[in-house]
């Protein structure tokens, strides 16, 4: 039988059916397909991190790295093939896509049960409806919620300022925080930011705009989660949205960049993959055991 580090969580067949050894080894291995288009330097880094984690956990994976010039039709054809492929449980389309491709149309081709990033409109609507009870929570919002939980940060009745309203991060995260009964203010490129940071008990910045949030804006004792990542051209360096060193003396908690939300995002992808894999094989997911297995703490530095 194949060994798989992710086998440790107890796999209970929900209907206690008896399966053959062949069936058993097929279901012991979750499979992930990654679709990447072009050579965006950040995407190259992120995809290589996802692949490294697949290898570490012996997760079956296929990378489809297409040139920038690929047509919408060809990508959709690939997704339809992967939708049918039994060895693939999760399909991830690495964003952003080049501007000649329709992200919406491409996302909506992903089979609902294989959509590990909650990109399909129907899954996204379910998320807005169900909040954290949804089957899939997009990876970056899930990473932020994980930080709030492990730091025991109770958001009820807290002023949270979220900076950024993207479909993958700021928008769904704001809804999830609302459902946790926070008072959420969403800032974006058409709003002022400073006054909303100044009144915030918790600042969550997902703008991807280098040091947009000045340290002196932050209320004493506030908690700060920095989701933004900006690459400094010509270097390997990345920085966050927050002036980290200036914020540090004021905050009661802050996540760094690098070493903060980013690496956790990748862990959350695997949590989602494990969930869809269990679901498609009639297994009961034991997420607590998976949390131990993925050992998130080794990846971040706060
Ligand atoms: N469909 C889709 N799903 C995603 O989840 C998705 C995406 N598209 N597009 C881009 C964003 C960004 N993202 C990150 C992954 C890893 C790090 C990460 O590991 N960061 C390290 C360092 C990375 C480096 O050295 O550049 C850190 O912050 O310490 C960050 C960000 C996933 N994203």
Automatic annotation (TrEMBL):
One Gene Ontology term of the molecular function aspect: methylenetetrahydrofolate dehydrogenase (NADP+) activity
GO cellular component: cytosol
Domain of life from the UniProt record: Eukaryota
Biological process, per Gene Ontology: tetrahydrofolate interconversion
Span of domain Tetrahydrofolate dehydrogenase/cyclohydrolase catalytic: 26-117
Keyword annotations: Hydrolase, Multifunctional enzyme, NADP, One-carbon metabolism, Oxidoreductase
Subunit and interaction comment: Homodimer.
Pathway: One-carbon metabolism; tetrahydrofolate interconversion
Protein's name according to its UniProt entry: Methenyltetrahydrofolate cyclohydrolase
Domain Tetrahydrofolate dehydrogenase/cyclohydrolase NAD(P)-binding: 138-279
InterPro entries: THF_DH/CycHdrlase, THF_DH/CycHdrlase_cat_dom, THF_DH/CycHdrlase_NAD-bd_dom
């Amino acid at each position: 039988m194949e060994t798989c580090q992710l086998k440790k969580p107890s796999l209970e067949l929900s209907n206690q059916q008896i399966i053959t050894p062949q069936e058993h080894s097929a279901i012991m291995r979750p499979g992930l397909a990654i679709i990447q288009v072009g050579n965006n330097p950040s995407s190259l880094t992120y995809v290589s991190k996802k692949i490294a984690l697949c290898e570490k956990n012996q997760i079956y994976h296929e990378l489809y790295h297409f040139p920038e010039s690929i047509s919408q039709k060809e990508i959709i054809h690939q997704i339809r093939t992967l939708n049918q492929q039994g060895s693939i449980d999760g399909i991830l389309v690495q964003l952003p896509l080049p501007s000649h491709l329709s992200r919406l149309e491409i996302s909506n081709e992903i089979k609902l049960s294989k959509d590990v990033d909650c990109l399909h409109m129907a899954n996204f609507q379910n998320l807005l409806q169900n909040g954290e009870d949804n089957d899939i929570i997009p990876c970056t919002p899930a990473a932020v919620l994980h930080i709030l939980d492990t730091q025991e940060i109770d958001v009820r009745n807290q002023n949270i300022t979220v900076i950024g309203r993207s479909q993958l991060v700021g928008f769904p995260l704001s809804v999830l925080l609302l459902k946790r009964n926070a008072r959420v203010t969403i800032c974006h490129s058409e709003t002022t930011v400073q006054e909303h940071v100044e009144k915030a008990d918790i600042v969550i910045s997902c703008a991807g705009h280098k040091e947009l949030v000045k340290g002196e804006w932050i209320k004493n004792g506030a908690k700060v989660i920095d989701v933004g990542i900006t690459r400094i051209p010509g270097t390997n360096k990345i920085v966050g949205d927050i002036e980290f060193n200036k914020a540090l003396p004021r905050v009661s908690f802050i996540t760094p960049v690098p070493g903060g939300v980013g690496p956790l995002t990748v862990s959350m992808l695997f949590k989602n993959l494990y969930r869809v894999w269990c679901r498609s094989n009639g297994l009961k997911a034991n997420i607590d055991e998976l949390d131990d297995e993925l050992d998130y703490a080794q990846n971040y530095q706060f």
